[in-house]
User: What shape does this take?
Amino acid sequence: METARGMRLRLLGTCPVRFIRLVLSCSLASLTVHLFPLRENLIVDGIFLQQLINGLTLGSVYGLIAIGYTMVYGIIGMINFAHGDVYMVSAYLAAIGIALLSFFGFESFPFIIFGTLLFTIAVTGMYGYAIERIAYKPLRNSTRLAPLISAIGMSLILQNYVQISQGARQQGIPTMLDGALRFHIGEGFVQLTYTKLFIIVASIAGMLILTYIIKYTRLGRMCRATQQDRKMAQILGINTDRVISYVFVIGAAMAALAGVLITLNYGTFDFNAGFIIGIKAFTAAVLGGIGSLPGAMLGGIILGVAEAQFSGLVNSDFKDVFAFSLLVTIMIFRPQGLLGKPQVAKV
Amino acid sequence: MSKIHRNGFLALAVSSALGLSSFAQADVLIGVAGPMTGANAAFGEQFWRGASQAAEDINAAGGVNGEKIKLIRADDACEPKQAVAVANRLVDSDKVVGVVGHFCSSSTIPASEVYDEAGIISITPGSTNPQVTERGFNAEFRMCGRDDQQGIVAGDYIVDQLKAQKVAIIHDKDTYGQGLADATRAQLNKRGVKEVLYEGLTRGEKDFNALVTKVRSSGAEVVYFGGLHAEAGPLVRQMREQGVTAKFVSGDGIVTDELVTTAGGAQYVNGVLMTFGADPRLLPDGKAVIEKFRANGYEPEGYTLYSYASVQALAAAFNGAGSTDGEEAAEWLKQNSVKTVMGEKSWDQKGDLKVSDYVMYQWGPDGKYKQL
Assistant: This one.
């Protein structure tokens, strides 16, 4: 930090780009401080805690979707723009799963949720696999921009397909899990619905399972090897095409988990639901360092909490402005993202 | 039935594509523009159902100047850019002589400029933003009231009936939503109530928990929302989930039973209040028409009858003027009144209804709304 500051001071005046960077970051930073009216009991405030919970639930869902972006980028260096729509499809699948299980007379909540999760993850995984096979694999050795364009095309196809087959209306499911925990803190209170609690627990569980797979299993080792050097991994006998397919399936499965959780929490979705949340999750992936798994989770949570706290303390009109200013500021100081590794040019 | 319709449509498309308008001139073409897809497709369906039934009934009774009405469906998805595109399509390639639409004020305002330039009469069943008729266009009408009237009714109700001193105002940053919220705020301020919170949310998002927490800490007794049901549903649900018991009041943007879907159950919309024109289903004028809708298994809720009445108004104007010229029809409509399914209606020089009657409705535990 100290050396960075010294360097900026030294280069001040000589390099206009760095000067602009400095001015921009200073003004952003001062704006942030200026906008936050600090209160004396900021930390123990019930409102602050409630906003923290709001941010954590939203952020953990961002994180789950961001994993799909970050893994795909890590392994083949492309941004899968269709990923937000994979999440959208999974929201529909979750509703279909819940409807099917209720239709067959199952009523206990844990069973329905478990069954729906399995069903949604399996089918969404198939979507992930099929999308990769159809849209990206044939373009594996073409220019870098070609799969990007086919990803945008895939995103439009998924949206229109769902719009035509499911209708353009708002869809929804009735509330599954009623009730809430209420903690009294000082004069205020914090209310945590069971659904939110379930979201936080389930996303942590999902992330832990994923971390375990990547760190300790054979599949995980293959993924990491392919990420580090695809050609070398191939030479050593790894079927990298299959590994890439697995990565798409894993990314889709995480989006499916997010889809079930969001559908439970908000109860409503439409064919366009993947757009905004996809952009936010992509932002989270970049914030945390694209290509890094813990980075995606961290980025999601930071983004969610920052949005919630900013809306709470300042103004919700400008929460996106704040979230993206935060992104810009972090990018200025760490262009590789919070936990990302700096790009090394391969010779 | 649908096959005939499709063939007719195909023939129409072919004839207009070839520049042979001989077939097209045999019919009175009216565009029905609204959000047929997207988050607000429920309102587009209300428009289309109402207009279709009206065209069918008018054609059965002899049509317009001896010719049949033919409707052209146009989808703007409540997006201003797409609204201008479909408006140009209706004018240039479909060659409509009148338009029923659009729904979102942010779509109606730019689209009506296209109709005005082409000299086509247009009537919106549901755009309530004051600006729609305030821009000096000759042939722009509306079948509904204005947000400045709606805001007065809502503001007075909050002060007089709910006796609230702390009111939080939330809007969706859109022409309609923010315009309505501002109109209500103006009336509240005039009555001496200063809002405790005035903030916008983003259309298309589903998580408003942070805003809800803020509403809770503001201690508001009433939350007024200017916006549409796609956001109103999650908002009211998240309020109840966080233990906010404040009354939820909104406007005519939530008059569809899809509000219950977006809120995740009737238990959340129970007690929600909204302003809307006096329920046309209670008037004797529309009894026969309403029976027809119900016989087809469709409840003519929200703007369905407004759309029906809009087609009636256009047909009456074309009949009265004896031509489909936009200027002449508009002139006739401003001089005469029309017997519609919603009662006798007449318009002032701006194109606003001379009488519009906003009243308060309440959603019940059964997920239906009733006039209070």
In short: The CA atoms of residues 78 and 224 of chain B lie 22 Å apart. The domain at 147-278+358-371 of chain B is CATH 3.40.50.2300 (Rossmann fold).
